[in-house]
Amino acid sequence: MRVAIFAETFLPKWDGVANTICHLLDHLAAKGHESLMIAPEGAPSSYAATPILGRPCFALPMYPALRLVAPRPGLGSEILDFKPDIVHLVNPALLGISGLHRAREAGVPVLASYHTDLPGYLEKYNLTAFREFVWNYFRWLHNQADLNLCPTRFIRRQLADHGFERLEIWGRGVDSHVFNPDRRSHLWRERLTGGRPNAPLLVYVGRLAIEKRIDVLRPVLTELPDIRLAIVGDGPERQNLEKLFAGTNTVFTGYLTGDDLPAAYAAGDIFVFPGENETFGNVVLEAMASGLPALVASHSGLKDHTHNGWNGFQFEPGNSAQLATLVRWLLSDPAYRDRLAANALEYARGLTWEQNLDGLIGHYERLVASHRRDGAMAARPSGDAAMHVAAAARSV
Predict the structure, then answer these.
(1) Distance (Å, rounded) from C-alpha 75 to C-alpha 339?
(2) Count of other CB atoms within 10 angstroms of residue 357
(3) I want to staple 203 with a disulfide (CB 3.0 to 4.6 A). Which of 18, 21, 268, 375 is the partner?
(4) What is the CA radius of gyration of the chain?
(5) What does pLDDT average to over the chain?
(6) Could you tell me which residues come within 8 angstroms of residue 369 by beta carbon, excluding any fewer than 6 positions away?
(7) Predicted structure pTM score
């Protein structure tokens, strides 16, 4: 099969979307499929067996690390020579418009995958006035695809409530050979506890950005002064967070790669993740695979795989007092915490990337077969993008 991918974001920016794309490209190569990807400029020229064509992009003022490719005539026309069987739009926003046009020109089906709750992020950046515009725009864009994939049941309900059509679930996996309890080491325990390895250790892994609500963790340290917190990752909020957590038992590690990241997970006792706008949360599965119970904000895609009292708990978004109560309870009952950790490990080990990506290829194959069986699918004309964006804006 020949797969053309239009990726709205990719390396060097590292997040859950880039992580998922890397696993996808590895899997396509391993299964003998051919692929070509269009991505923002700055990406590597290839990954696994996939050539990557970087295109000029611009940074969002509110989030400079996110760079977007504006649609323009002819963008992505290289896929016409590639002759794909299907076009996959990953997290479509602007580049996705060009992907739609090229797919219709090539006469092949389009699959779009939804990864980021951008409308929810707008609230965190005091841009709520634009939320309905963004929902209307994304609905228009996704509803031109022949199939829309979302990562969890929670997000599928959310998208359906906003009028998105042809929705199916494509979850995520975790590599339990990389992330596992055997990575636990005294060296990393010493490092992340600030030299107090016997102290309880909470771990957060992810981008340091406003929408991740890391500030919710600060009152927990006041309530429970004997615990330690490791904040693993980097991002635009790091300087502000370092000021906020000054004087507490908190270690900031920056980005970790290679063997360091799984070692950091495994060094902890409890994983904490307060962001309430997560569509899936790859890091939560990585933490569970490392043998940690997870405490997560309930209003997000994390609800699908964090089960209260079994492999972790959900807490009310922004409720630091409730989170502190859960932490105190689990630390006071090590036997129960160990049961949660064992269940988390069992759950994560059942979610492999191999199985997950075979399922995605199954979606590809069904769309391609349907397209060939029924002839050219009835076109959903993309029309003029500016006209649709203007219409969306008028509805706000």
Answers:
(1) 53
(2) 22
(3) 268
(4) 22
(5) 92
(6) none
(7) 0.90
